């Protein structure tokens, strides 16, 4: 794992966000390689663009998402799709995303949650090599991975390249910051200061009611 971490320092600067990318009118709500939570038969798809190193994403996932999930996802009304967009430090965001996606699909959200739960401690330690490695290991364990699988995950060049391509696709989708939310392929709540269940209810309830 330590050797894999050192590779972070050599990743290309091309992982940075293209802030001036034009917003797409609509995007595919779900793609075959997305990680998802909820029923595929749900009438509404909420697409969430996140970064594993984004503090606002961690806040949303820990504070707001549980109530949204309980009200809309667990009831079968909304399917949630997670997509990656790397934020500084982008190299760590890449490896965090890789660890979450190495977990079985049904454990992805648990691994993602562990990354967000451990984010503050990792940052408090200055994102040092030992702190970053521990952060990744906790996520891998939450995702059910063995130490050997964790190490293989961070060394899988093809998988890392695929994640870079996912980041580029997010930029092509017109996303320039995280978290960004889309409902059925269209951006929502862009001007809202909070993204809690009450904010989402303003959009989801009329849509679910056929309005």
Word description of this protein:
The chain is α+β, with helices and mostly antiparallel strands and 211 residues long. It has a single domain, classed as Glutaredoxin (3-Layer(aba) Sandwich), CATH 3.40.30.10. Helices cover 49% and strands 11% of the residues. The protein contains 8 helices and 5 strands; from the N terminus they run αββαβαααααββα. It has a 5-stranded mixed sheet. Helix 2 links the parallel strand 2 and strand 3. Helix 3 runs parallel beside helix 5, helix 3 crosses helix 6 and helix 3 crosses helix 7. It is globular. The N terminus is likely disordered.
List keywords for this structure.
globular, 5-stranded mixed β-sheet, alpha+beta, 49% helix
Widest β-sheet, arrangement of strands:
1-3-2-4-5
In percent, how helical is the residue content?
40-55%
CATH topology: Glutaredoxin
Give me the Rg, rounded: 17 Å
Whole-number mean pLDDT? 89
Short description:
With 211 residues, the protein is an alpha+beta fold. It is 49% helix and 11% strand.
Topology of this structure?
Layout: H1 2-6, E1 35-37, E2 44-50, H2 55-73, E3 78-84, H3 90-102, H4 108-124, H5 129-142, H6 147-154, H7 157-172, E4 180-183, E5 186-187, H8 197-208
Parallel strand pairs: 2-3
Antiparallel strand pairs: 1-3, 2-4, 4-5
Helix pairs in contact: 2-4, 3-4, 3-5, 3-6, 3-7, 4-5
């Amino acid at each position: 794992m330590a050797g894999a971490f050192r590779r972070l320092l050599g990743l290309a600067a091309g992982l940075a966000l293209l802030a001036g990318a034009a917003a797409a009118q609509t995007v595919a709500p779900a793609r075959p390689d997305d990680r998802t939570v909820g029923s595929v038969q749900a009438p509404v798809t909420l697409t969430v663009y996140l970064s594993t190193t984004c503090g606002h994403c961690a806040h949303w996932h820990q504070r707001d998402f549980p109530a949204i999930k309980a009200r809309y996802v667990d009831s079968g009304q909304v399917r949630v799709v997670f997509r990656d967009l790397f934020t500084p430090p982008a190299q760590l965001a890449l490896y965090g995303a890789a660890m979450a996606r190495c977990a079985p699909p049904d454990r992805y959200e648990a691994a993602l949650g562990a990354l967000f739960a451990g984010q503050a401690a990792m940052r408090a330690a200055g994102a040092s090599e030992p702190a970053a490695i521990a952060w990744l290991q906790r996520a891998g364990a939450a995702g059910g991975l063995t130490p050997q699988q964790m190490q293989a995950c961070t060394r899988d060049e093809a998988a890392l390249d695929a994640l870079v391509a996912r980041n580029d696709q997010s930029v092509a989708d017109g996303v320039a910051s995280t978290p960004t939310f889309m409902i059925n392929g269209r951006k929502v709540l862009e001007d809202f200061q909070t993204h809690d269940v009450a904010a989402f209810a303003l959009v989801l309830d009329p849509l679910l009611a056929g309005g």
